[in-house]
Amino acid sequence: MIAVVDSASTGTPAARPSRWNLVTAALALVLTVLGAFWIGFGGAYLGRVLVTQRGVVSLTLAPSLPWAVLALLTALGLLLLTSPRGWVGRVDPVGVFGALWTLAWLVGLSAAGSVFALSGPQAHCVYAGCWPRGWQELLAGAPLVVAALLVLGMATAGRRMARPVRAVLPAVVYLALTVVQVAVWDSLFVPVLDGPPPFTF
Amino acid sequence: MDEQILATQKWLNTTYAAANGWVPVVEDGLTGWDVIYGLRRGLQWELGISPVASGFGDQTRAAYQAQIGRIDAASPTPGNVLRILSGALWCKGYAGLYDGAAVSFSSMESSVSTVRDHLGLGPDNPFVDVKLMASLLSMDAYRIPFFGDGTAAVREVQQWLNGTFSHRRDFALVPCDGIFSRQVQTALLFALQYEFGMADGVANGNFGPGTRNGLKTQAPVGPGSVDGAKNFVRLFQGAMRFNRIDAPFTGTFDAQTSSEASTFQSFMEIPVTGAGDYTTWCNLLVSNGDTTIATKGFDTNRQLTLAQANGARSNGYTHVGRYTVGSGKFITSGELDALKASGLKLFPLHQRFNNSASTMTRDAGRTQGLEAVERCRTLGLPSGSLVFFSVDFDPVGETIHGPVLDFFEGVNDVMGSVLNGSYEVGVYGTRNVCQVMLDEGKAKGAFVAGMSTGFSGNMGFPMPTEWHYNQIVEVTENLGGTSIPVDHDVVSSRAAAVDLSTVVGPPVERDGSTSATGFDVVFEWICRAEVACERAIKEADSALYPVKQWVVAVPDYILHHLRIPEYWNGAYSGLWGLYTPQGDPDEYAAVARAVSEGALEDLSPTRPSSTRDVPHWAATMLGYRTWGIETAHDDYGLGDLGGWPLDLLQAWGVYQKLASGPDLFTWMTDNLGSSDSSGFGYGDVVADVDAWLIAAALKESSGGTLSSSSRGVLRMTTAQRIGAFYAERFGSSESNIATAFAKLADGIDVGPVDNFPFTVDKLREASGASRMPTEAEARTCGQAFGRVLGRLGA
Fold it and tell me: CB–CB of B577 and A48 under 8 A?
């Protein structure tokens, strides 16, 4: 039996997406790229540790109004990715694509944003494995990564969940994790990132 | 296969098998030296010579004259000698003795008569004396071969020579095949010497002092001259015919003879008098002609100074031949400048050994061709310049058509294999070598080694039609106060010498790197790298796969190769992958890149061994290639980011970590451009300066090469380059640098967006500083950098 959760009143999916569906999907993709950019390339406005020096940490810009606006816009993008669509069947292709799209941009922009400290032959990593390169970006992007995975889950296995829950869960989780992240970043994460790697490479 | 020749071969083997020294003749019915040698051996045996040999020398001649004298209808001649005569006639294509015919001279009288007529000896009262027998027992032809270069005009002269001078003791009959050969040239010299009055035994067929004196005192002829007791007009006309001039052969120096003489004189670039003067005679007779004439050209293996070059001009020279390679003899950068300043034109010579057949292989040709292309590009010689490759020995027919031709095929394989600035192939060698290479399409011009008059390749061969230079004599000459050995070269009006007025020579090595040539190590390597890339791309190009169009990207391929690994995706340089990514617009570009990278990896050395920071220069220049060149004096562009701004920012990062907190301006002016620990040492300054200057030149050239763009820049001293950069980039203003750097310090402007988000933080990370400089601090850094540029560029 095929479960048609987002069906119209007739109980069968629409033949094609509406113009509204297309607009919201496009907007969602744009907003999630914006999120990936400021989180991946901009480090989520969190203080960043230099891989080439100890004790040099950039100023943490969060929480601040720009940070809040960008976080909310990113959450809106997630929300639009999971918003209900009448034509969708068992798997929501917009959700699946949007989650992968967001993750891809996040990974690419995080990688791009991590290389600036390594701008020439004189720039050498302090620690083996260039700690915390990669880990710092992973921690900064963690809320969006989790949210994107939730979007993926909602678009596939989570299609049986209630529509409102499914629509808001990734955005809410993202916002919650972002707030927690800002709260503990300087005190909890920065010392670890600035210190020697906690494990052997 | 000829039945009569086969019968002759069988008869020889049967008759002389027991003769001492006999070598069996191949019984194949074909004429050739094998059967001719057999006939000679047979004749020797009949004359009582033992052991027999294959030559027809003095002993054979003497025995023939003593025992036989002449064979004719009235003389009793041994039957076997008549059979040998018969065999010789058959081999020459005339009827000898048929089966069953009486073995007598009368059976062959008609053929002998015809032979004598063909040789110019007249058909009447035929006989065979020792000269005719020697001629018959050779491969000389008496008719113009169906396939060959013989002409009736030359044959007429050959016949006349035989008819007129065969009675002289040392005059050997010449073939009458219409072909000018060494043998014919010798006969012509004998004839002249006889006309000079030289006695038998004195005349020797050589072009020596006696002959030169005779030419000066007796042989001059001109309009109105008519042969009488002497035949100088006919000899002059015949000599012109031997040199491919269609002169009459009448013994009267008429208007046509004068006109043709003028044609020859013009062709040989000697004074056009229309008369048979001494100089013209010499040029008709020997490959070096009149060695006393003043020539416009010379060549030498000495590296010339400006004084010597000017001295050469003062001596009347306009062309100089100089070697492209060779220890102690190659053209140096300074010499090229001197030649240019003096106004001399250059004809480049390329020679390694090339002095025996064993050195002439296709691989050697390729090697030398590649070496020539690389060196000519390094020297800055313009596209299409004719480079003469040397054949410095005297090869004969099979060697010329074998190894020498192979060598030139190898040269041609390479010389036309580049996409920018290919060069033409010329040949230096004997007349024969030059003519064959020209005929085979392997050379566009000839530099004739006419000085080697005794070389077989010069004797009996007319001047090649496409000769450019003729080397006639080696002398020691005073050039600008110094006596040096030079070869005088007659210059043809066809000579396509290199006009050096537009040539910019290669930069010299100034940075202490080891350079075998004295050329800038990086520049020389770039020239070789370009050639390698262009050849690889051209080889990969086809109608279906047009990759040639991407030759414009060769500078990028080379720069990318040079910045690896320091400024590429290694452990420490990810930024450069982001800033200057290597992408290909289409599949053809990808192929062009792949083959170029392969060619660069195959170069030796793979990268230039320079004391300059080449990877830094290459990476910075790629930034300009990727993002463009900012021309406003008081602003920065994205292309700058990999250059001076990043370095200045890193210097800021170093300063910012100093615990002592010295004065910023003082620290910057003290440390920038001097201390590597400042993050912006002297090597970095030079790399940034060179990158901007060469990138600007490359952009200006619109599709030019990296070598052509860097040539002018690297010819300047380092201080001059820094000064030029300061002037052209910033208008020599500290304030402009300060403004530009301050604009950067608050974030990167991307298109219409000022201070693009997050870029300040990224710049800070790149600088290694905990914070970016304030505007005031940035201005101070910029001013200090300007001060340093002004100081270093002074």
Answer: no
